[in-house]
Amino acid sequence: MSKRIIRLASMLVLIGVMFSMIACSNSSEVPNETTTGATTTKAVTTTGDQSTTAATTTQAVEENPFAEHLTITWLMSLNADYVEGTGMDEEMLEERYNIDLQPWAISNYDPEGLSMMLAAGDMPDFSKLDHAPWDAIGLYEQGMTRLINKEMYKKYFPYYYELMLQNEPSSLFHNNVKNEDGSLSDNFYGISMVVDNKWYYNVPLARLDWLENIGYEIDESLLTPIKLSDEKLGKYSDQVFITNQIFPHEDFNEILRAFTEDDPDGNGEDDTYGGVIFNHNFRSAWADLWWGQFGVNSSDGNFLYEDSVTGDIVPYYAFTGYRDYMEWAVSMRDKGYIRTLPEGYESLAPQGSWYDNLLANWMTGKIGYFFADRQYICRPDAPAYSDRQPPQSIWLNAGDEDATFITWPALAGPQGIEPNSKWGQRRYSLDAFGSGKNRTYLVGAEVSDEKLARVLTMWNDSNTAAIDDPYWSVAKSGIEGVHYTWTGEPWNSARITTDATKIPPHYKRYGGFLAVFSTGGPAVGANEAMTLYTKIFYGEEWYKDYCIEPIKYWSATYVPAEMMQAFKADWDAFGADINKIHAEFRDRHWNGQIANINTEWEQYINQLYDAGLEKIVNDYYNNDDFIAYKTPDLTVVK
Question: What is the pTM of this model?
Fold first, then answer.
């Protein structure tokens, strides 16, 4: 369908050109007039003794930027069985940009296949090689790739270039070819992915019916129901609600108590409790919501914090927020409101990991609060993973099909419920740009500037087009009724993707030509729940109000190379002692062996500093050469 539209447009252009040529052939010929591009000269006519200057105008001749037909080889997808020339999206792009796209039938997740390809000296023009034996620097040193100058972005990919300017200096560090003196150059080993840094994985989810049973009321005007119409979960429509209401910290503590002591399921038995907690030594995104109440995250040890007591920039284990979290966790555990996985839990998932056992306990229907994976709430597909996730795991496994649920942005800390950066979640990606094998697009060594410009132009066009642009919406997502159907109003509801086996061969899509960006926005290709959740999540900009930001972030992006080397030498010298002191204090606290947390915390900090942390703090963390973290400008320029 799209091909006929493109050909019709081409025919109209051709007819227009023919009419223009006819019009020119019927006009009076003007001698001595010369036109080059948009330059117009005046023709002088002499008759006898009289000279006149006749002013003429000519239409500028617009140069076709895609005049030369280019062949471009491509490897950015998982479609190892793809046959070149059979993709609808491939044909659309080829016609518009006068190119011949030739995807290579190798998966970028195939280490052996990629190694064999590179060993043979073969390198696609454009690629993303997640599992290649070398990263972007290594591939360049092997002579397999070329560099990209920033001016190419400025001229042909201004959308990307403006995002780079918005997010200096960190945007420039990724894949940068450093000068001999260590300063940044204008050249890059590869094209750094723009990463969606507006989102986070897990959100609080709780039994709404239990809340109502314990007398906790929520204004219905604050609740947005998740509509479900798919065959599998459609009967549970309007049983999960999204709200931006934040429960005050003390109210949430009381909810956990009531879930444990007030028989919220009404069965007359003492068999329910608030939630699952982990040992202090457990650090994962699955514990971040617990820790985040106190302004510290568990999953990323590179976060550094400004401690209110010492005034120093410190790691999490020397931050007072960590102390306060540990006190809260042990207190709630000792009261029984939140519990570690109970003894005998292996019977629920005997061959499983902690994660399998966590999900197995949740699906018993005896727990009231969950830190749920936002991407899998009410998701009907991927049953091996999705069916074990709450809330659907309760409906499908606990026999409690009438259970209702509520989900909200984050757990508030004791500071109050006003949105701030002192409590909340951790954004999944802290920088606006990413690098490494899985976040770098590579350009082959033999690719000319003209070929690079053609692809950059294509990417620029795709990212500046409106979401419902007739051409780009088809190129990116396919045709409504063929590749997907809407569950409701187009562009305001979810898309249900058509099973690949039911799509006619001539409508097959490659799907790997335009994936340079991952900047969030409406998840129109997701299931109904995810589409609605994303619309609210991004529309209300939860990431601005409910995410913890580091004061500094320890990584090569922000730390000079020589400082990183010096730190390694110092850490090798006394890092083991610091870790030992931390582990002993952490374990003693979990085991209830600390009588007065404030007194012993002060002693613990002194021990850490004496063991070498003072040198680490003074020489590195407080050092001005280690630049402060800057929250990215998350607005996408259009």
Answer: 0.80
